[in-house]
Design goal:
The complex is a heterodimer of chains A (114) and B (223). Chain A is of the alpha+beta class and 114 residues long. Chain A is 26% helix and 33% strand. In chain A, the strands form two sheets. Chain A has a three-stranded mixed β-sheet with strand order 2-1-6, with helices on one face. Chain B has a seven-stranded parallel β-sheet, sandwiched between helices. In chain B, 45% of the residues are buried. Classes of the chains: A alpha+beta (114), B alpha/beta (223).
Chain lengths: 114, 223
Amino acid sequence: MHELSIIADLFEIMTEKAKEKKAKKIVFVKLQVGKLSGVVPELLYTAFDIYKKDTIANESELEIEEVPLKIECKKCGTNMVKDDFVFICTHCGSTDLKTLSGTELVLEKMELEV
Amino acid sequence: MRKKEILVLEDLLGSNKKIAADIRYKLTQRGILTINLMSSPGAGKTTLLERIADYLKPDYKMAVIEGDIETERDAERIRAKGILAWQIITGGACHLEAKMIGKVFPEITPDLDFLFIENVGNLVCPASYDLGENIRCVLLSVPEGDDKPKKYPKAFTTSDCLILTKADLLPIMPFDKERAQKEALEINPKLRVFETSALQDIGIKELVEFFISIRQNFLHKNA
């Protein structure tokens, strides 16, 4: 359960950005969370609601976009979505693969009241 | 009052990654190879380190950073081997972060050859945090069961080595070694696999030789 640590880092970025824009409130926050990011979206929602109290984001809504694990085979060029975390090309069997998405843990955007 | 949408696109682990990169750069410059050991509690990280110390001590200088939720016990065990050790007590946190290593950093002497970081026993959270290591190892002990790589993929995808520990128990435990290895390699085809028993002194020499060879390559690159 390191989701609270992640949310603490998120709030540091959020407050810094809100300050830069001289915002009075943060009303909406959107995250991108990869399938292989190692965090559980449900727990992020819980941690976010605990953390937001007494901050300028206390009335904000969190949205999480779950990003699938997408792999490209460097040998045959096949693109595939992996739910089983098996890093073997389903087309040619190669293990020489490139991860295209699915590891991100990103603050994508926010909506502010200025 | 008007509403304004701003695009941020910032990595939530960005500040940890930045501190970790700085630690890695400084340690690498000093010729110190840093190894992060991750596993569930009781997989044998400290016992493995005690045995590694027996092999490294005659020719190399090593130190250990111990991460635990409570107590100084692991650092005391390492110090009893005549090895320098720092204990980080996280006070509840389930993983180490780069900034915690940063606090110990000023005490790390430049004459070290190897720095081991024993992470908090947990097969989930530590996997998300770069600590500035050069090599990341995940330990899997025979009593835990052969199904763990598939159940905890993040720890295995982000590691360079899989160290199977307590291998002396293989004859008496229902642990399918081939399955564990096959499934771990499916998740991460680049994993180097070592089979060890710290108590019976099996496979430790090969593991230590691997660390020494990695350090030699890295000194060569530094030069």
